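re: ur question from earlier - yeah i can do the single chain one, its not a big deal. heres the input i used so u can compare w yours
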Amino acid sequence: MNMDDEPWMAESVTCELCSEIYETDPRDPILLPCGHTFCRSCITKVKEADETACPSCSLDFNDIDVEDLPVNFQILSLSVTYTKSQQDRCVTHGDELKYWCRDCEASLCSLCLYTDHPQGHHVLLAKTFLEKKKLSLKEETLSFNNSLKEMMNEVNSNFKKCFQKMKILSQLQADVVGLITDLQKACSIKPILLLEEKLKGLQNKGLGPLSHDGTEILGAVGGAAPVCDGAAEVIQAGATLDQRVTKPGSVKNGDRGRARLDCRDGRLVVHSLTHRADHRLFLQMPSEVFLELSVGSRCLGRVYIKLWSHLRRAQQFLALCLGSMGPSHIGASFKKISDKNKERETIWCTEYYSRSGEMGYRALMLDMEWEGEYSKIPEEGLVVGYSNDINDYGFGICTKGKPGANFSGPFGEVSLGMEVVHAAVRYEPVTEVTITDCGLVIPDMTL
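and the output i got, formated as tokens:
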């Protein structure tokens, strides 16, 4: 049997908790009373943490000691076979590469070591070197991960400062515009002097450093945000995601929905979508979501979908990605593949789940778009609606186009991750492919 042709092999011989391959003590595959298997080390840790239930099905095994649990010798034998199949062999002698030379930085078999290899070199057992290297790499990876966490915390802190700065700038803009109006109405010296003092106060308000390293959003009002032509210029913020505002198939490049930001009464608000070009602060509205697909404990990857968010089907899909209406995509599995290996091949999901675990298949919103002007020719990556006499919720992702045909209710398209969709289509049975996570993609913000 060719192990490389059996993708399920690695998953079968790997502990779901620690992702390590089973091997004789301390990672013996231990069989729990419920029939699930985990390595001895992980089950021991579960016991030490006073958790006495199976990590998979939650069946209690409190009255049984770990040492009394049987070894799953069938899995252990499979693990040994798999491990041997993964070992490299010497291209010269055909033997297993059991040794590693530190000086040559090369793998050696027994014949290499005792015939052609220079004497006096530092040679280790390949298994010993591998374990040390994995431990060292794990420590480096954990250290790097800790550094990333620190950087993320710092970025999060600066983001909060940016958010507060946005509120201050937006409020300042309103104050400056009001000052300009008062200046135009002033007819005597006293109001002019009062407005001069007010301007000085505005110039000094909220324009300090953004972060501890001295980075500033604006310098002085007179430099970065001059008062001229009856308007106050304020920084603009943009993002990279399109907001679909026209019918599918008629979207033009650069046609993006923007929402104006404004601060009044101490609150930062987002106005309705607009295309007006002025000097106010704007935010590109997000329209991209993601689905994480998995088979058992193995993650296939993430699929990113750009929604045509002017459509109600897209709004319903977004609500199910966020769980904002109660149920969500999480836990749902794909049910079928239509036209498999043919034109218009599509993988379908026809269910969702509530927080209590109840399955649903009815639409959450009324007046869903269907047929007519909403139809579109099947293309790879097109996300389409599903409807029959019973189910009017489901969605599908097209994997192969078909000229001359049409889908009745498309509402988005895959922007990244089609290889994950194709992997799901190839998996047998497709009903084991589930959505294990989903959510909204936050757009990049540029100043």
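Confidence is low (pLDDT under 50) at residues 1-5, 210-256. not sure if urs matches, ping me
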